[in-house]
Design a protein that fits this description.
The chain is an all-alpha fold. It has 17 helices and no strands. The protein has helices at 2-7, 39-75, 80-92, 95-107, 111-132, 136-163, 170-199, 204-224, 259-266, 272-277, 282-296, 301-311, 322-344, 346-364, 370-395, 404-433, 435-458. Keywords: Membrane, Transmembrane, Transmembrane helix.
């Protein structure tokens, strides 16, 4: 039902004035409906294909994420401050390459190629953990390279999703993608736990299996994902479908045999100066400014799991299963929250997600009990479902098509830098005054961040 609604979101609508068959209406989005196998179906297929890529990639990534706290804290005996430093690298190493990936993808209109390079780098890095051995500096280097691959791919991937769905279905498209992505995140820790259960603490086996799964994701991208505007049935700029004018329209992209050249030459040129001009867009700037303090007050998942494991005195061997609770809640809520965001407003859902995160922090301060564990993990997952894809769905339509990857990259870079600083700060606070002091400080910071962010997000409209 969800897929059929996404595919037919625009069906039956009357084309905008001046938009004939095969032409782009003034709003910049080609008319929907038309022949079978047209844009709607291909676009939905593109979102599903990208979701499948993310599913395999997240299985791979979460296998490593699930065992890293075990490996670093219990096998390499790192202190909370040292772990916070590496965890910050893990979170923030994506920052600079998010901007690079977004700008290059927009400038050369090669979003699939840039995203593919990011996925390939992360796949190779899974084997890099084997080469790093027990060297903490080398592990940090591999972590940085792995997450740099994520930074390179995220904005181009989200831009392809955004361009593969009509504006009114952005929340649903991202909800579908994040649901598939989270299904992988749910299976990753289970796979890691299974491998560890079979081979013991020989983490090399986890890294090898993780690399193999990541390669499958890269292959799916290469074979099934289509570049919006270049593949058959995917609407390109100026009404060109699949790089050619639709038959029977009686129109051409430009007069004479050089029509395509003229059409290509008419596209706005993507430059760094143009990327900076995005900040002049007030609704977009509000989203960017609002997300920075919220990210600065976000406790990383790894620290969340360590706190719960220590407070409830859970055996360390069960630590890789804690992410399963978060992923399960995220998976259940991703699509409903995406649909809700399209109906009641994306900013409302994002705000609700951070309120849920604040409640999660409060639970961490309660006396340890199984209900606290389950509730905290569930609220963290619901927070992800309400914020992760919904923020991109909120910001995407505020950006022009030719600079959408760049604009999304700027928002994601701000979030990554904020999360990196938050991990470092949390590690220092934990080392200085204990985990409870660190949680209280982050909860206070998040409350202040919400006061700042709520009015900005409420006014972030085209």
């Amino acid at each position: 039902m969800y897929l059929s609604e996404t595919r037919g979101a625009d069906s039956g609508k009357t084309p905008a004035p001046g938009a004939e068959d095969g032409e782009t209406p003034p709003g910049g989005r080609p008319p929907s409906g038309g022949r079978a196998g047209g844009a709607g179906r291909v676009l939905t297929g593109n979102v599903i294909a990208l979701g499948t890529v993310s599913l395999f990639t997240d299985i791979s990534s979460e296998m490593v994420t699930a065992i890293l706290p075990l490996y670093l804290i219990y096998q390499l005996a790192l202190s909370p401050m040292q772990f916070g430093l590496l965890d910050g690298v893990y979170t923030g190493a994506t920052a600079v390459l998010r901007l690079v990936g977004g700008h290059v993808a927009d400038r050369f209109r090669s979003r699939k190629l840039v995203a593919g390079a990011g996925y390939a780098i992360s796949a190779v890095c899974k084997l890099g953990y084997l080469a790093a051995g027990r060297s903490v500096p080398l592990i940090g280097l591999v972590i940085g390279a792995d997450r740099a691959g994520k930074g390179l791919r995220t904005a181009p991937r989200d831009a392809m999703i955004s361009l593969s769905a009509p504006p009114e279905a952005q929340g649903r498209a991202f909800g579908l993608h994040r649901a598939m992505d989270t299904a992988g995140a749910l299976m990753g820790p289970l796979a890691a736990f299974g491998v560890v259960a079979v081979v013991g603490s020989a983490y090399d086996a986890v890294f090898v299996v993780s690399a193999c799964v990541a390669v499958v994701g890269v292959l799916v991208l290469v074979l099934f994902v289509r570049e919006p505007g270049h593949a058959t049935g995917v609407p390109g700029p100026a009404g060109v479908v699949g790089g050619a004018v639709r038959a029977g329209s009686g129109k051409s992209a430009g007069a004479g045999t050089d029509g395509r050249d003229r059409e290509a030459g008419a596209r706005p040129k993507v430059t760094l100066r143009g990327a900076l001009d995005l900040l002049a867009r007030r609704p977009y700037r509000r989203v960017l400014v609002a997300m920075l303090p919220l990210s600065l007050a976000t406790i990383s998942d790894s620290f969340l799991y360590l706190m719960l494991q220590r407070r409830l005195e859970i055996d360390a061997s069960w630590l890789p299963l804690l992410p399963v609770g978060v992923s399960a809640a995220y998976l259940i809520a991703a699509m409903p929250f995406g649909r809700l965001a399209d109906r009641v407003g994306r900013s409302t859902v994002v705000i609700g997600g951070y309120v849920a995160l604040l409640v999660c922090y409060g639970l961490l301060l309660l006396p340890p009990a199984p209900v606290v564990l389950v509730s905290a993990l569930a609220l963290r997952g619901l927070s992800y479902a309400a914020t992760d894809g919904v923020v991109s769905a909120l910001a995407g339509p505020l950006l022009p098509e030719e600079r959408r990857a760049t604009g999304l990259a700027v928002v994601q870079t701000g979030q990554a830098l904020g999360a990196m600083a938050a991990s470092w700060a949390f590690g220092v606070l934990w080392a200085a005054g204990g985990p409870e002091l660190a949680v209280k400080a982050m909860a206070a910071g998040l409350a202040v961040a919400l006061v700042v962010a709520v009015p900005l997000l409420r006014r972030a409209r085209p």
